[in-house]
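Narrative of activities, Objective 1.

The group set out to show that a structural description can be obtained from nothing but a protein's sequence at a throughput compatible with the screening campaign. Below is one input-output pair from the validation batch, recorded exactly as produced.
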Amino acid sequence: MGLKEFNEDISIVLCGEAGQGIQTVENILVQALKMGGYHVFSTKEYMSRVRGGENSTQIRVSSKKIRAGVDRIDIMVALSEGALNHLKKRISSDTLIICDKELSINTDFERYDIIRIPFLEKARKMGGPIFSNVIAAGTISCLLDVTKKDFDACIRAMFTRKGEKILEGDLNAGSEGYSLGKVIIGSGKISTTITKDPHISQHLLINGIESFGLGCIAGGCRFMSSYPMTPSSGLQIFIAQQAHEFEMVFEQAEDEIAAINMAIGASYAGARSLVATSGSGFALMVEAVGLSGMIETPVVIYVGQRPGPAVGLPTRTAQEDLDLVLYAGPGEFPRIIFAPGNFQDAMQLTARAFNLADKYQIPVFILSDQYLADIYYNLPDLDVESLEVENHIIKTDEDYMRYTLTPDGISPRGIPGYGDGLVLVDADEHDESGHITEDLDMRTKMVNKRIKKMDKILDDAVPPQLIKACEGEEYDTLIIGWGSTYGPIKEALEKWGETSSNKNKASHKNKVAFLYFKQLYPLHPETQSLLEKAEKTIILENNAKGQFANLLKLQFGQEIDKKILKYNGMPFSVEEVLEILENLEEV
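Output recorded for this entry:
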């Protein structure tokens, strides 16, 4: 084996069976590496099982900020018999494989550079195989020059609550890992050079779920009811953990139907309310979405997308539920759909969702997915100072009518017990006071009233963000993405824009741009002119039909020239997008 040199950006992948603590290694490493002054990014893929199978975590360590996953594996840490075979399509001759010395290696992998480490042997001597994950984390931290002090601080933060005995065992396991790492370094088989920045140790390190959760808090959420369903369960756990400190109520309902009706009931009483679910769980909520529309009671609905139909692939990622949320509910009534693609947008748009739901008295959807929910990366801060909770509830008088007809369709919203008025709502069609009616003229007026809100809602629409490959005012090719495709497309565009082999190629790059949509409905009026400027449009989506491309055509009559669709349960990688950019003439 020759010297393996890894410079500036390293992709480390750890793979093992469910139950071996791969997630624990990820949590330790991303914290330790950030404390060590590195930019970090991690993403995971895992099977829908408690034990067995093969799960993996990718951790990128870089001198520059990183926001997306790559196919490339520089260092592969295999902790199970099936790990190498599971990721064989991503392993190359440039990959350094570190595996337990007791694992049998398929002859297909013997030609690769392999370092065998006695993870399990050392772990058993320390008390059990479970310690092998901390030993592996210590080994990797040592290889990347994270100080033992910073590593131990991360171990203490994670394990102190489990008691002194367990903490001591994990600290010893980390020390054993550092000893193994020093042996590897001393062998002269590996060299890493990544520029450290001491300021990064002060950065925030959060995952997607936490960014959405912080947005809920900033948006004034007071009540959440949900039924657990991957990948939305993380948001439920976050809100439940923070409920006491931020004066929120969390209720785990008996099913999804109960959950959304509880949320609407709490909203009727004046509490900003949230429900979180995934595709097939949301299917059970559709009738209540119509209830929100009819009684004009706000609710925020977080939908963590995963591949369907039905249960589909419960732990994988997709963008397959846009059509579902766009057309959910009987009849016609307004709604808003957000689909953030990074943590800052996730926090800000979630907070905005609560304000707009209250302002327009409608359901507001937040579309996320497993990939965005689970990724980690560091960032200097989150801009929370600009976020304010807007109050749209009035104190009622004796003559109050809940559905007063107004020019913009927005009736003053009162809540029970706040003022002298009667706040009457009805799921049947109703008159201005809220009483059931079959007056056909009133029916027409009420439908018009609800739909009229869309004029004002459009004024609050978030425009798509135009990101250019290089500086320049014009573009002729437009790459379109929404939600979690943001990270891979943006990084690929930046890498492609930085390299040019000739002037003609560089000139062509000046004319390529990325249009990132974080609000999918209603679409900002500026969208049409941005689309019309492009000679060629290419969209990337994680679904089989090109659902957002179809919506663009429906709204603006603009046919997207090329749909690049991926729906195997995995997100786009930076390399996949780069390949598209390198072959634009053929796309």
